[in-house]
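Appendix B, Record 12. Input sequence as logged:
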Amino acid sequence: MAFWAATRGLTPPSKVPPMLNPNQRQFLEDELRFRNKMQLLAGEPIHNLDDVYVRKAEAVDDPNELDKHDSFYHTTKSLLVLFQIMGVMPIHRNPPIDNMPRTGYSWLSKQVLWAVSIYTCQTTIVVLVLRERVKKFINSPDKRFDEAIYNVIFISLLFTNFLLPIASWRHGPQVAIFKNMWTNYQYKFFKTTGSPIVFPNLYVLTYNLCIFSWLLSIAINLSQYFLQPDFKLWYTFAYYPIIAMLNCFCSLWYINCNAFGTASRALADALETTIQGSKPAHKLTEYRHLWVDLSHMMQQLGRAYSNMYGMYCLVIFFTTIIATYGSISEIIDHGATYKEVGLFVIVFYCMGLLYIICNEAHYASRKVGLDFQTKLLNINLTAVDMPHRRRWKCFWWP
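Logged structural output:
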């Protein structure tokens, strides 16, 4: 365009500034601030000291202090211990040594060896029940449609046991990273705000969920024993740990999502209190880093549990569809019986699990994202000077 204007004696148009998205703009500003920081350290003069703020280098924290402020671990320890006993997630707590993460995972640890032992015993029972059900399904003279549906449902639930090493154990290192991020975040939050993150009633809730997960598993299996004529009592010993494991996974997801909501509310309240104090600009950068770290923790939650909950939801969704279709079609053809009641128990159970997973994920993302930003917008900045407002803008480019 400039060449075309020059050949015709016209004034070339001015350059159009590039349009940057928020991430590109934040990256550019971080690079400029880093350059100014380097100039400051080299003794060269810079024009505006208020614009020099970059994330401080991570310091090695005292492991005893990390333990002292790790309330999330202490309040949810009962569920982690239950996972270790069941062999579901064999992570362990490292001794308080400098430069060593507080939570670790090792294939040679005693927790993993215990998990392998428990899994071997459990798999033996599952194989016996699976063999019995497949044999009965093949050799049964009654080839009714409802009998096929029942066997498909209960066989699919048994296959959940074989997914455990792939979906859970393989991602143990990522789960340990996620737990360590929570440990470090709580201490960093305390150093920045001067107050810890309080998780009200989380200890009692976690402890009750551990008990409720097994009680619900026993109730569901016994209901199938009484409602299904071909469901023998010794079959239940293969399904007890499987249903309890699904319940514990749902409990863990509920606790993690609620913890994110609690941390987001605590951060927003502390930020609002800081804004109302004197010279809040010196703290705004640290608050922004806390918010970004909270977002990174949610990403790590996905990396640690995505495979596990992906397979988990597929099994539940498949079981829900098959049980719903089988029960409704059987009621239309032959009327309602106790078998259909047993299938409806499974349907409502699976739908409840799916609802909790989806609803809690939406709750956590909304608390960390939309609700936190709404609270930022509602804070009055009219009494704050221009350098403080520039610091405030950093929140909108995470």
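The chain has two domains: 1-54, 74-396.
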